[in-house]
Amino acid sequence: MIDRRKFITKTALGTVAVGTLYSCVDNGIKPHDPQKKSGVAAGDDKPVKKPVLISTWNHGLPANEEAWKTLKNGGSGLDAVEAGVMTAEADPKVSSVGYGGWPDREGKVTLDACIMDHQSNCGSVAFLQDIKHPISVARKVMEKTPHIMLVGEGAKQFALEEGFKEENLLTEDAEKAYREWLEKSEYKPVINIENHDTISMLAIDENGDLYGACTTSGAAWKVHGRVGDSPIIGAGLFLDNEVGSAAATGLGEAVMRTSGSAMVVELMRQGKSPMEACKEIVERIYKIYKNRPDLEYLQIGFIALNKQGEYGAYCLRPGFNYAVYDEKDGNRLIDGEYKIS
Ligand code: ASP
Fold it and tell me: Which InterPro entries match (predicted)?
């Protein structure tokens, strides 16, 4: 099976919005207030449910498992989301993330990832090649540079300087899929057929602080150099520790056009529940795409987690699922509610 549900039409590529990079530079950060009463969100007396983890797709289950273990072993929320999504990056069977990810139309596996913490520190890499764990490189960008995003050769050089190993990420299976695709060299997606995709993870830890991570090999057979929403803070991932967090999966161009994850967080700030906020953005995207020829292949899903530990998700079409882990119900997979069939 060479088809993959994600694709980009030439039209879409021609009009790809340059990612809206939300400013979260050091001088704009609101410092974390350690005096703030733990367990109670700002301006709200509701007890916070915590910890809670939410991740996209089936591969969210093992990712949540790993992240939960990390938290229980005393790791930070940041350690947890990093360790969580690394499980998908390392799994050769996950053809949409990290090692084993399906390549672009030149046969190159190119990776995008970002990470963000409760103090609005963030790091990101895009168009990174030959490094198995882009999420860890993104974390190093956050912790060791004054910047937020590194791309391509520069990102790789930085990773190598930080001690990451160069390795071939194109597995035999991925190469085979690529060769089959080359026979026709056309985008022909089948929505959700594989049911796995970008992994995004959101966490609220024991302190009631929010963290997020997102990592992907992006759309299979994309034009060499294409970067999607996943490494873009505000598009593929966003959080505001006073409000909530959100992340996206699906056609990155649609998420970038709407600054999707940042908007979900803003809607929660205005009082919407996580699910209502996700739904409103999916509806905005649908409105933009409903008369476009590429609507046929559009799938979009958002997950969100607010400061009270309440979670929600919404997607455009059936087939999207997400994994949630909390003390009460353990780790489970939930089908996303959707707008159209
Ligand atoms: N959002 C990712 C991208 O467009 C891929 C996906 O989640 O399907 O690169």
Answer: Ntn_hydrolases_N, Peptidase_T2
